[in-house]
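FAQ: What does the model actually see?

It sees only this:
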Amino acid sequence: GLIGYEFGAMANTAHRGALALESVTVDTQRRDYVFDGAYAFPAMDEENHRIGGALMGSGVDVASGKRAYIGTFLYRVSDDASGAFNISAEMQHAGLWVDGNRQVMVNPVNDAVVLVTAPAEGR
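And it is asked to produce this:
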């Protein structure tokens, strides 16, 4: 009975250049949106790199092992970027809320890794 979520992401520079957050969005029209078809309120906070959502009414069932979309973080690399960049979950305010307004703690498994290579000379 999922009724809400909040999640943040932070990019860490690993080699050279920067990976900057360009936008934070929640596409409620996606068929795999976690609250698809329900009366819900998405929330985006670019300044603090967070997304979230709250459901009005009873919770939705999210099957174990089934993937569901909750939002999009769009990053852009700087012109001088190269190397591996880690995008890690920001856990200070992260969580899932279920029926009865009970919080379920979230523990990320792995960081996402973005590999950036310089274009070949002359291209």
